[in-house]
Specification:
PHBA_efflux_AaeB/fusaric-R, single chain, FUSC family protein, mainly alpha, Methane Monooxygenase Hydroxylase, Chain G, domain 1, 78% helix, transmembrane transporter activity, 692 residues
């Protein structure tokens, strides 16, 4: 056979994979990181299983499942998840004891109570990020698992709850111990990771800023993708911060960098049309400004967060800030002065961002800086998540009550587990479908072990060797993006299907019944997420847009307005979600809606900046701003009447600025009004054209 047809060198000298085998690369040629992860957690699982068997616990397989549930590729993620898993388990155990004590032998009071608890936990989890959300859903399905197991023997509910908590603590401790042994220079590596993330943000900022200066057509679409990147970086900053220790505030400084960069981009989105007109004007100062900004873009696109390089970049930004302020005060015409005023403000934002970037690797003495970037909190989405979980539990309970299925209680418990795990996902249908495939594979693997291999093993060492091979493969799959969702189900469900013990093994009938109710429970969860209040990316985008338009009106009226950082953080979170939804659904028509949301964000930022300028001091401009805000509450910022009143207020302020040219405060107010009028007009044109 001619092997050259199957394996051919590519132009850079690397070997191509045989046709049809590329999808198995994660298994036959794993990365060193994947090998270390799989080896570490396989060892932790086998140690946890050995200890559980030595302690003669009744369900030692849960200790193995806990290890793989807690295990994450990043050490900080594992540490955070382990902590919140213990908290969620303890809360769920207490709730289970309460429900069993309150409703003994009363199934149709017990099941609705458990369903309500699951719904409440899913509702609250929607408002949290990362593994704080996981703690809420874990308290929900832990309560269900313990309560269902104790339903037939309510007198032993306390001991069952303590047993369940023991498995969790044992698995967490074993995973943490192996993580410490396999981890070196954790704080140094975490700092390098955080610095790399911030550098990537600044590099992407340089490219986006270049598009804005050159007025490229797809700038707003790329700004939406940039917002999605900021959201993912923000959510991931928590874990290297944990690895670096609580006494280090590098994570707070990194979040502050993201906030300042977001405000900078939003300012320029609002200025984009005016910048284009100003840059096209026959003005030597504006031509020089354009060249200076393009040079800054080149520096940002290649910058490194090292003391010398960062100092040079900071010096350039400081120079541009002073230069733009000078040109704002002495510009030849009003548009040039307003444009340079906004550019000076953006350079000030960039200066602040670079200050915080420097503090990541060189923190100031006695650093106590704290910063929190706001995010979107959606009550309607939380209600939908809670309702889906409650409906799934009630359907599973109805099946059990109508059929008297011997495996019905396990069916309810696994349904609760899956619904709890995926209730807060943005698009749970995709995630649960992958989880279902993992459940099938876990049943196949557990069947091979239980029916064909374990009966011939005579001691723990042999069991550890055989089981370790299966767990090692699951660990490799978890490190691969394409198989991570299925591997999560494999690591969680496969040990549970084995039902290993000191003096017993599962027989064929018991295994098949257990595997059947496990796979059917995951299938029921998939159906619930598809049929009960199903996720629709387009409907979500329309709802977010309507919600933001209503918020713009409230920003003009609310007595205590939020900070610009809060508004930008919330807006970036929403825009990032829309970008991810469109990518998951393959929706190529979502670009217009994402552009609209970016423009809504810019209008909101300018309204908040106006309110800050109004509070600074009282003069003629203050009265004009007050009148304008009251009119915008009445007519709405994104409306023809709203645009008309903004332009009328701008004409009044332009007369004041003409009498006092170069007045910095008036230039800032004019810039805000220009941003509102220009962006609102673009929004109206887009909505008239049918953009959603």
């Amino acid at each position: 056979m001619d092997l050259s047809r199957l394996i051919m060198p590519n132009p850079v000298g690397r070997l191509r994979w045989p046709i049809g085998v590329d999808w198995l690369r994660w298994l036959v040629c794993p990365t060193p990181q994947a090998m270390g992860f799989a080896l570490r957690n396989t060892a932790a699982s086998l140690i946890a299983l050995a200890i559980a068997l030595w302690m003669e616990l009744d369900s030692p397989q849960w200790a193995v499942a806990t290890v793989w549930s807690v295990a994450q590729v990043r050490r900080g993620e594992s540490m955070s998840k382990a902590r919140w898993r213990i908290v969620g388990t303890l809360v769920g155990a207490v709730a289970a004891v309460v429900f069993i004590g309150a409703f003994p032998q009363q199934s149709w009071l017990f099941f609705p109570a458990v369903a309500t608890w699951i719904g409440l936990c899913s509702f609250l989890a929607t408002f949290c990020l990362n593994f704080r959300s996981y703690a809420f859903v874990l308290s929900g399905y832990t309560c269900s698992i313990i309560a269902v197991a104790a339903a037939s023997e309510p007198d032993n509910v306390f001991f069952i709850a303590m047993s369940r908590a023991s498995y969790i603590v044992l698995g967490v401790v074993c995973e943490a111990a192996m993580g410490v042994l396999f981890t070196f220079n954790l704080a140094t590596r975490a700092q390098a990771t955080m610095v790399g993330q911030v550098e990537d943000v600044l590099h992407r900022l340089g490219g986006l800023l270049r598009e804005i200066v050159l007025h490229e057509r797809d700038t707003l679409v790329h700004a939406g993708e940039f917002s999605d990147m900021l959201v993912s970086v923000h959510q991931g900053l928590e874990f290297p911060a944990i690895e670096m220790g609580r006494q280090v505030h590098a994570g707070d400084h990194a979040r502050a960098v993201l906030a300042e960069v977001s405000i900078l981009v939003t300012r320029l989105v609002g200025l984009s049309g005016g910048t284009e007109r100003a840059m096209l004007a026959d003005d030597a100062a504006l031509a020089d400004t354009r060249g200076q900004l393009l040079h800054l873009c080149d520096r940002l696109a290649t910058c490194r967060l090292e003391s010398g390089a960062l100092d040079d970049l900071y010096a350039q930004v400081t120079h541009l800030h002073a230069l733009f302020e000078q040109r704002a005060a002495r510009g030849a015409h009003e548009m040039a002065r307003v444009t340079h005023g906004v550019l000076a403000a953006t350079m000030e934002d960039l200066q602040t961002a670079l200050d915080h970037a420097h503090a990541i690797f060189n923190p100031p003495a006695h650093d106590r800086f704290r910063f929190h970037l706001g995010g979107h909190r959606d009550i309607r989405l939380a209600f939908h998540n809670g309702l889906r979980g409650a409906v799934a539990i009630m359907l599973a309970a109805l099946v059990y009550e109508c059929t008297a299925w011997p495996g019905g209680m396990g069916f309810i418990a696994i349904t609760t587990l899956v619904c709890g795990l995926f209730a807060t996902r943005e698009n749970p249908v995709v995630a649960t479908t992958r989880f279902l495939s993992g459940a099938v594979w876990s049943a196949v693997a557990a069947g091979c072990l239980s029916l064909w291999l374990i009966p011939y093993l005579s001691n723990y060492e042999e069991l550890a060797f055989v089981l370790g091979l299966f767990l090692f493969v699951g660990g490799l799959a978890k490190c691969n993006r394409g198989t991570a969702g299925a591997a999560a189900a494999y690591g969680l469900l496969m040990p549970n299907l084995l039902m290993t013990g000191n003096q017993s093994r599962v027989d064929e009938i018991a295994f098949l019944n257990n595997a059947l109710h496990t796979v059917l429970a995951v299938g029921l969860s998939v159906l619930v997420f598809r049929l009960v209040l199903p996720f629709r990316a387009r409907a979500e985008r329309l709802r977010f847009g309507a919600h933001m338009r209503g918020e713009l009106r409230r920003l003009c009226l609310v007595p205590l307005p939020p900070s610009p950082q809060w508004w930008i953080g919330t807006s970036v979170d929403r825009i990032g979600r829309m970008v991810r939804h469109a990518a998951q659904a393959g929706d190529h028509t979502a670009g217009g809606g994402i552009r609209l949301m970016l423009m809504f964000s810019s209008v909101g930022l300018n309204i908040l900046l106006l309110r800050e300028l109004k509070r600074q001091r009282r003069d003629g401009a203050t009265d004009i701003i007050t009148t304008l805000l009251r009119a915008l509450v009445r007519y709405r910022p994104i409306s023809p009447r709203g645009v008309a009143v903004v332009r009328a207020a701008r004409r009044r302020l332009a007369r004041l600025e003409k009498a006092d040219p170069g007045n910095g405060r008036l230039l800032e107010v004019l810039a805000c009004l220009d941003g509102i009028a220009r962006t609102a007009t673009a929004c109206l044109s887009a909505m008239e054209a049918g953009v959603e």
